[in-house]
Design goal:
The protein is built from six helices and 15 strands. The chain is an alpha/beta fold. The strands form four sheets. It has a six-stranded mixed sheet with strand order 4-5-7-9-11-10, covered by helices on one side. The protein binds fe (ii) ion (2 copies). The site of one fe (ii) ion has 5 residues, from loops.
Length: about 270
C-alpha cells in the first residue's frame, strides 16, 4: 500500500500567491503531477491541513480544482488556516466524508492500513487542540480494531518540534490525547503538517511524522532565537510505503528539476 501525504498547500485566491511571493498553487500542481506518475501507483492521498491561506471560499475551490486532478482518492483535514465548515461545504461527502460532533473526524476503512482523521483545529486560533470529545471519539474508534495497523492523521503535531513559529502556537490537550495513544500498540504513525518541515519524533509508543509544504519552508533554528521567517524551496510531499512485511517506511519526495540520473558504471 502506498500513501502520499501533501501538507500546508496554503493556496491563495485565483491569480494570487501565498504571502505575495510563494507559488504554492503551481507547486501543488507539480506535486499532483508527480504523484499521478508514480509507479507503483499511489493508493490514496492525505492532505494534512492548511489547504488555504485564509479559508476564503475561492481559495478552497481553487485548491479543490487542483486536488481533483489526482487520479486516486484524497482525504483532507483542516489546519489553522482553514475553516472546517468551509472545507466540509466544498469537500464534504468525498474528501471529508463525515463530520463527527461538529469536528472533521472520520475513519477510512477497507484498506490494509486503517486511517483515522482527527480534527486538531480551534476556530480562529493558530494552535491545536484535542478536547475530551475528540479524545473520546478517537478512543472509541481505536477500540473497534485494536489489531489492525492504523495511522492517525491531523494537522498539528501534539508536541513541540523545535520550530519557533509553530512551537509558539501551542497544543492544548496533548495529555488526554497521549493517554489514548499509549493504550494502543497498533498505531504505526501519527501524520501531521503545520511545521512545514519533514521530521520525525517518537511519542507515546509511536512516531509523529511531519510533512514538508508546497515550497514554503519554515526556518529551522534550534536556538529558537531568530525572528519568525520562511524560505522559498522546492515543494515536496511524503510517500508512506507499507511493505509486504508490514513495515511503514516514509520517503521525503522533493519535486523539481535535478541533475541526473547518472549510471555508476559510466563514471
Ligand atoms: Fe501551514
Ligand atoms: Fe498550520
Amino acid at each position: 500500500m502506498l500513501i502520499a501525504q501533501i501538507s500546508d498547500c496554503h493556496i491563495a485566491g485565483p491569480g494570487k500567491n501565498a504571502y505575495k511571493i510563494a507559488h504554492t498553487a503551481e507547486n501543488l500542481a507539480h506535486c499532483i503531477d508527480h504523484i499521478n506518475q508514480s509507479n507503483p501507483t499511489v493508493d490514496l492521498v492525505l492532505v494534512t491541513g492548511d489547504i488555504t491561506c485564509s479559508s476564503q471560499i475561492e481559495e478552497v475551490e481553487r485548491a479543490a480544482r487542483l486536488l481533483d486532478r489526482l487520479r486516486c482518492p484524497f482525504y483532507v483535514v483542516p489546519g489553522n488556516h482553514d475553516t472546517r465548515s468551509v472545507l466540509w461545504r466544498v469537500f464534504g461527502g468525498r474528501a471529508c466524508p463525515e463530520m463527527s460532533a461538529g469536528f472533521c473526524n472520520y475513519v477510512i476503512e477497507g484498506r490494509e492500513i486503517r486511517l483515522i482523521a482527527l480534527d486538531s483545529t480551534v476556530p480562529g486560533e493558530p494552535g491545536g487542540e484535542i478536547c475530551s470529545i475528540r479524545a473520546e471519539w478517537l478512543d472509541k474508534r481505536l477500540a473497534e480494531k485494536p489489531a489492525q495497523p492504523t495511522v492517525v492523521f491531523m494537522h498539528h503535531p501534539p508536541v513541540k518540534f523545535g520550530v519557533l513559529e509553530t512551537d509558539e502556537d501551542g497544543f492544548a490537550g496533548a495529555g488526554i490525547l497521549g493517554n489514548v495513544i499509549e493504550k494502543y500498540q497498533n498505531i504505526l504513525r501519527i501524520l501531521c503538517g503545520h511545521i512545514h518541515l519533514s521530521s520525525h519524533g517518537g511519542w507515546k509508543g509511536t512516531i509523529i511524522t511531519t510533512a514538508p509544504s508546497m515550497g514554503l519552508q519554515l526556518g529551522l533554528d534550534l536556538t529558537l532565537t531568530r525572528p519568525s521567517e520562511f524560505y522559498l524551496e522546492k515543494p515536496g510531499y511524503l510517500l508512506h510505503y507499507f511493505t509486504p512485511d508490514r513495515n511503514l517506511i516514509t520517503y521525503t519526495v522533493t519535486v523539481g528539476k535535478m541533475d541526473g540520473p547518472y549510471l555508476f558504471d559510466e563514471q
